[in-house]
Amino acid sequence: MLKAHFAQDIKTLIENSKYSKREIAKNLKIPTSTLEKLLNEDFEGFSKLSLKDIANRLSNILGQEIEIIFEDEENQKEKVETKPRERKRSNFKSLIFNATLILFLVINIVFLYFLINDLRFYYQVLNENTYTVSVTNKGNSDIVLNDSTLAPNESIDLKLTNEGKFEVHNNQGEVVIKTPTEIYYIKLEDFEVKLTDGES
Asked: Model confidence over 49-71: pLDDT tens digits?
């Protein structure tokens, strides 16, 4: 037996029309008893095609569109309508996953960058036994660094081995010295820096 229902209240429509049930049945070319079955939504013995045809002819008689809805088609329509929502949820989850993956990769790249820099430093220390020392003139006049001149706010990187040293003269302000482990702020006019066991 077909499971279906009319989208409109055809009982009320017929009662409010100018036709009696007998006249409606006659125009539909079906017995009055069959019309009663339709009004009670008893569709035993009917096919989808015959019900659609009756709904179409009833629309012409009453001057109003009559639609019959079959439950299997309605369920199928609901399933089709839910698919786009499922796709949207799936796309949203995929977007979150991709964003998380990209963030994870960026964090790892940054970590690797610092790790590589650290490894370069330790490689230099262990294999070359040299250290990088940065000297910056923060004063308002030139200073003499060994045999060269360092202008105000100018910096230079020196490569020093263990027991290596350099001298600074004519310091009228402040000299900032950065070693791999410490930062020193020196205001002496003339001084010497010596690297001993990796420490200045």
From this structure: 888 888 898 888 888 888 888 88
Rounded distance between C-alpha atoms, residue 150 and residue 167, angstroms: 12
User: For residue 150, with 0-12 CB atoms within 10 Å meaning exposed, 13-18 middle and 19 or more buried, which class applies?
Assistant: buried
Mean pLDDT of the region 12-35: 88
- C-alpha triplet 182, 187, 193: angle, nearest 5°: 50
C-alpha 94, offset from chain centre? 8
Would you say 5 and 43 are in contact if contact means Cβ atoms under 8 Å apart? Answer: no
Dihedral angle over CA of 143, 144, 146, 149, nearest 10? 90
> According to the model, what pLDDT value does residue 122 have?
67
The structure's pTM equals 0.37
Tokens of 141: 């006049």
